[in-house]
């Protein structure tokens, strides 16, 4: 039997090119809203928990998100005016943001292993 043809998948862990205007617009509109699936007591069993030191710091995390977009630390496909994924490094911790509302530019975020992000962000301090 003939083996099915493999699809080429877009690598979500790769940075994408955004024009300065795209970065500026997305960064000015993006916001962190979080997700209960990463917070106790409603966390999914397979979800990475939000670090307790970041609970209640929505404004700070929104600034992280906006800075990451402005610096071009974004990947996946563009969905409307926003990139699907955004990465931010806070010292030794690397966070991934995922777009949850492409109309309003809302993101949730979670920590990931330093080897799980784009190669360009794995060892540098951003």
Task: List segments where confidence is low: pLDDT < 50 over at least 5 consecutive residues.
Answer: none
Structural class: alpha+beta
How many DSSP H or I helices? Answer: 2
Quote the average pLDDT. 88
Overall number of strands: 5
Assign a percent range to the helix content: 10-25%
What string, H for helix and E for strand, traces the elements in order?
Answer: HEHEEEE
The CA-CA distance between the termini, in Å, is 50 Å
Strand content: 25-35%
Radius of gyration: 15 Å
Shape: globular
Main β-sheet description: 5 strands, mixed
What topology, given as strand order, has the largest sheet? 1-5-4-3-2
Layout: helices, strands, pairs:
Elements: H1 20-29, E1 31-32, H2 58-70, E2 74-79, E3 82-90, E4 93-101, E5 106-112
Parallel strand pairs: 1-5
Antiparallel strand pairs: 2-3, 3-4, 4-5
Quick take:
The chain is α+β, with helices and mostly antiparallel strands and 126 residues long.
Name some characteristics of this structure:
alpha+beta, single chain, 5-stranded mixed beta sheet, 2 helices, globular, 126 residues, 5 strands
Can you offer a commentary on this structure?
- This protein is an alpha+beta fold and about 130 residues long.
- It has helices at about 20-30, 60-70; strands at about 30, 75-80, 80-90, 95-100, 105-110.
- It has a five-stranded mixed beta sheet, with helices on one face.
- Strand 4 (about 95-100) and strand 5 (about 105-110) form a beta hairpin.
- The longest helix is centred in the middle third of the chain and has 13 residues, at about 60-70.
